[in-house]
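Protein modeling request. Please complete all fields; requests missing the sequence field cannot be processed.
Requester role: graduate student
Desired output: 3D structure, token encoding
Chains: 1
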Amino acid sequence: MSSLPGSEGGGLRVQLNVYDVLPNLSRANKLLADYIGAGGAFHSGVVIHYRDSEPREWAFGGCESGTGVFCTGPKELDGNPFLYKTTIEMGLSICEDEGVEAIIARLMDEWPGAGYDLTKRNCCHFTEALCMWLGMDVPFPPWVNRLADPLRVVICVCTYIFLCVCMYIYACMYICACVCVCVCVCVRVCACGFVCLPACVYLRVSVYVGLCGCVYVCMRLHVDTCMPVCACVYVCVCVRMCVYVCL
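Delivered output (247 residues):
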């Protein structure tokens, strides 16, 4: 880690404020974090007690443009939109006011609001990075952001299940379409063909739309482990649609 101006001294008091993301989740978070140890849905901010100014609480959030780093007064987010849970003493920083401002300026460039990601780059990831830059002796409490990794696993598992279900439905519709064509050809019931074939095509197109939607969701959520599967599905969908258009 490169040195920053003002890091020669030290001694600024640093605290970590933790909030429940939604007031209705406070009991669930207490159960998951305090009794089960699985973490919870939390927001966090780092409170820095400056020598030459009032303490400020630094946090990170998503936005369409500009930096996602912002500051408020300590606990100003309590009740709007979060519910204050607890404060954790993180110790003393390794730098004075000037060094802290240099660190914040650097993090503002490195943490754009558009880069917010619920499982890989959320507010708790930012506060952990800020504490690391401030040189905290107290380790960052793991329960604050422990839910992010299980949430990522759940997203991956649900995506794979959705893909499997869509492929199964697609296979069933394909078989039904083939059977419908064979029956209509064998018995020479043209009216039946006009009724059944559009229905089968409609169902198959619906499945294609669902698969494309799944690919889009994975891309938006940056679920990297699902991307190979999604890429294959996307290529298959494009090829089959091109075949239909050409024929």
